[in-house]
Amino acid sequence: MPRAIWSGSISFGLVNVPVKLLSATSPKDVRFHQVHAVDGARIRQVRVCSADGEEVDYAEIAKGYDLGGGRYVLVEPEELAALDPEGDRSIGIEEFVDLAAIDPLYFEHSYYLVPDERSAKPYALLVEAMSRTAKVAVGRFVLRTKQYWVTLRPYDGLLVLATMLYADEIVSPADLGVATTSDTAPSERELSIATQLVESLAAELDPSRYHDEHREKVLALLQAKAEGQVLTAPPGPAPVAPVVDLMAALEASLAAARARPGGGGQDREASA
Fold first, then answer.
1. Domain boundaries, the chain
2. Which terminus of the chain is less hemmed in, N or C, by CB atoms within 10 Å?
């Protein structure tokens, strides 16, 4: 089993279920180092004072909050530590809600909550109860030095904990200054064609169908260069013509979707 990030218990009512927190994702980003192009040696980052240009020892570096105008408030580590939230090694469930009631915009990071050696039975009971009621648990817990509000939901026999963004971290559409659907209401004809297009592309979700094609190309490039191959730059993407006639574009898209294998064009065309 991978190393646990956190261990504690799920607490609801008078019930406590000991659990461990494990990573649920494994990012596959291709990472590069800065190297000297002349000899290939790694570049060393140096901390330099912007006032005198001298290198600063790590022991002389303090935390500063930017007030603007070149002014900073210096904060001591002890002052911040005194404000850290107190963690009681538990995830306190406060309520159960429908998953549909939570907008996906609020989800931040996901983790697996797995039972420890003492809690296999109560853990399984909680997972099954949540699965049967189709409910998601909402609560709070402290990870490292930050307090989160979190959701717990069943997933393939386990519980997935998601840390959530706070409401004041979500940008309101009203603050974007862009037109909304109330300002650009489509015609009934356009809406009918667009609805048929959506229905023609409806399918059961299979996440494995989607993969990072750019990352695969970068890895292939790196492998080829490591093997000493001489590469030529691939052609750029073909220019995309701007949409002039919305109805024509919708109808052409719908026809193309119906022509795909398994597109269900016959049935939908008859119903249309």
1. 6-27+84-168, 186-203+243-272
2. N
Q: What phi and psi, each to the nearest 5 degrees, are found at residue 168? A: -80, 0
Q: What is the pTM of this model?
A: 0.73
Q: Are 149 and 138 in contact (CB under 8 A)?
A: yes
Per-residue pLDDT at 64: 94
> What does the pLDDT look like over 107-154, one tens digit per residue?
999 999 999 888 899 999 999 999 999 999 999 999 888 899 999 999
Q: Kindly give, in sequence order, each residue whose CB lies less than 8 Å from that of residue 150, ignoring residues fewer than 6 positions away.
A: 91, 138, 139, 140, 141, 161, 162, 163, 164
24, 110 contact by CB (below 8 A):
yes
- Cα end-to-end span (Å), the chain: 53
> Amino acid letter at 141?
F
Q: Which two tokens stand for residue 90?
A: 């538990």
pLDDT value, residue 271: 43
**Of 17, 11, 14, residue with least CA distance to 123:** 17
- For residue 233, the 8-state DSSP code is P
pLDDT mean over 9-29: 90
Is residue 62 very low, low, confident or very high in pLDDT (cuts 50, 70, 90)?
Answer: very high
Count of C-beta atoms within a 10 Å radius of residue 61: 10
Question: Token pair 């192009």 is at which residue?
Answer: 37
Q: Closest Cα partner for 116 from 162, 163, 148, 159?
A: 159
